[in-house]
Write a structure and sequence with these properties.
heterodimer; A: alpha/beta; Rossmann fold; Glutathione S-transferase Yfyf (Class Pi), Chain A, domain 2; 6-stranded antiparallel beta sheet; 5-stranded parallel beta sheet; 14 strands; B: alpha/beta; Helicase, Ruva Protein, domain 3; Dna Topoisomerase Vi A Subunit, Chain: A, domain 2; 2 domains; 4-stranded parallel beta sheet; two-stranded antiparallel sheet; 8 helices
């Protein structure tokens, strides 16, 4: 589904603002501090009840107000028909300063936003947030899990069973129990862990093809992006895996933690042999993040709804050649919402096909 | 709820009811007021029924099913097949299996499933008694009927693993309940995980 009308009440600097969006390219234009990023934040609040900028959501409430409300009208994506999706829906999130949250769909309270996260997934790019590329491996595992779980029930099931068995084994490690009690959990861990490594290896090989294609188009120079899968449980059969877990029981017990297994996996973005996490420049890391988001969107066409791209101030990060490459990619399908302080970053042709939304008056 | 709103006796009843599974504080409050409104001759039989049941009902010495005697009706029944033993987690599982009228063997109720996170180890389940039954009784097939959950599966694995060391050379057939499609259902509506299991466990015709 796509974002249609957005109404934000008491979100950051906006007391009450209504904006209209269309399919394909949308440009939110305004001067610094006009509240462009707050619109991106408001869309995320309405659809996922979270903010990309802060864990304390109450910080988003406008100074002097006691509540905020973010409403998004979702409309069907004509190119991407989803049998489950209604023709349109009004989704809203309300938050009061005491922390009480309410989610609504068409005016009726809703326990959570899971349904809308499925039907209208979002990919958010904030220039300062390159944690997906340079942060801890956990973020990349979460990204990978979300990507593959959407396509494969087997993957979803394996992640859930593996996580459950891991928590149980770790609880045993803390409790100094006899070895016989470890065996059943280690058997399940070995079976599901082996499966996860296999599914991740296969999934990443396929996703890497998409990602390197996107990167080649974006980078505007012949650079080769590889996604390097790192796991400490590679090439182990289920039996070997189980034996390895049993062999490490004593050392695992000392640290109360299971060391072997895909819960410690990582995926590194490597461009022309340079690991972006360790040695990538700021610009390369941002390009890496953008690549992952765009590749995820392209990949989603194989299953599930295509994510809506929310790109905050992405244009000032890129040189002219890369801007053209990015826009060429996003205008072809789906919906993208890009914030900018400067419309000169867009060509006349690009502006002609775009929906330009002014925020906070025109800039000087 | 602010303290002191209810008299101590009323609060105590609310607190006790709120401990029941599926009952939250609000429901407990509603039930309490309902009970208080009832005339004594209607409310007190509930209290008496709880007392009577708690005093009379205990666990079967042999299989840990619920009973009012030392041995439950199933353990006492000479027509039951003594060579078949089915291990389940809870007494309610015995009831479910009995309703099928397909099983004529004996049971052993574990009283739960292994879950280190909840502090449930083998010592908290009736596992020792299971293994001592297996070494004494003429069991030829052990059917493991623990739930198809992670904990149930780990418990099944633990039992089959321990069995080899307990029985020495004696051979017992160990089986696990099959997982698959509900009868009378449509494939279309089956969830993918169950359908996947059903495919894996398909049978020759």
């Amino acid at each position: 589904m796509l974002v249609g009308r957005v109404r934000l009440i008491n979100v950051r600097s906006h007391s009450d603002i209504t904006l209209g969006f269309r399919p394909r390219l949308n440009i939110i234009h305004g001067r610094n501090g006009a509240g462009k990023t707050s619109v991106v934040e408001g869309v995320l609040l309405a659809l996922q009840a979270r903010s990309p900028r802060t864990f304390r959501v109450t910080d988003v409430i406008r100074k002097g107000s006691t509540y905020l409300r973010a409403e998004v009208q979702l409309v069907a994506d004509e190119e991407c028909e989803d049998a489950q999706a209604p023709p349109c829906a009004e989704v809203a999130f309300a938050l009061s300063s005491d922390g009480t949250k309410r989610c609504y769909t068409n005016g009726s309270p809703l326990a959570n936003m899971d349904r809308w996260a499925q039907l209208a997934p979002l990919s958010v790019f904030l220039p300062d947030d390159v944690r997906l590329v340079k942060g801890s491996p956990g973020r990349r595992r979460t990204f990978m899990d979300a990507l593959f779980a959407k396509r494969s029930v087997q993957y979803r099931e394996a992640v859930s069973r593996y996580g459950g068995a891991l928590a149980q084994r770790n609880a045993l490690l803390q409790g100094g129990t006899v070895d016989a009690q470890h065996k059943p959990w280690e058997a399940i861990l070995a079976q599901e862990g082996h499966l996860l490594v296999k599914l991740r290896t296969e999934g990443l090989a396929a996703f890497a093809r998409t990602a390197s294609g996107v990167h080649r188009a974006l980078a505007a120079r012949p650079a080769e992006l590889r996604l390097v899968y790192r796991t400490n449980a590679a090439d182990l059969s289920v039996e070997e895996y189980r034996a390895a877990l049993a062999g490490r029981r004593a050392s695992d017990r000392r640290l109360s933690f299971t060391h072997l297994g895909p819960h410690r996996d990582d995926v590194r973005l490597v461009v022309d042999g340079v690991d972006l996490r360790e040695a990538g420049s700021q610009g390369e890391q941002r390009l890496g993040l953008l690549t992952l988001l765009l590749a995820q969107r392209e990949w989603a066409q194989g299953g599930g709804a295509r994510p809506i791209l929310l790109l905050d101030d992405v244009m000032s990060e890129l040189d002219a050649e890369r801007r053209r490459a990015l826009l060429a990619m996003v205008v072809t399908c789906g919906q993208s919402i890009i914030t900018t302080t400067d419309l000169h970053h867009f060509t006349e042709g690009e502006l002609a096909g775009a929906n330009v939304v002014e925020v906070g008056g025109c800039c000087g | 709820m602010a303290g002191g709103l209810f008299s101590p006796a009323v609060q105590r009843l609310i607190d006790e009811l709120a401990k029941l599974p599926g009952v939250g504080p609000k429901t407990a409050q509603r039930l309490t007021f309902y009970l208080l409104k009832l005339p004594p001759e209607e409310a007190l039989p509930l209290a008496q029924a709880i007392t009577a049941a708690k005093e009379a009902v205990r666990f079967c010495h042999r299989c840990f099913n619920l009973t009012e005697q030392d041995l439950c009706a199933i353990c006492q029944d000479p027509r039951r097949d003594q060579s078949l033993l089915c291990v389940v987690e809870e007494p309610s599982d015995v009831l479910s299996l009995e309703r099928t009228h397909e099983y004529r063997g004996l049971y052993h109720v574990l009283g739960g499933a292994l879950s280190p996170l909840d502090g449930i180890g083998p010592d908290r389940l009736h596992l020792d008694t299971l293994f001592s039954r297996l070494s004494k009784e003429p069991v030829q097939e052990l059917i493991i009927g623990t739930n198809p959950s992670l904990a149930g599966e780990a418990t099944a694995l633990f039992i089959s693993e321990q069995l080899h060391s307990t029985l020495g050379g004696r051979l017992i057939r160990v089986t696990r309940l099959a997982a698959g499609l509900p009868v009378g259902g449509d494939l279309e509506y089956a969830d993918e995980v169950t359908l996947g299991k059903a495919l894996l466990g398909r049978r020759e015709m």
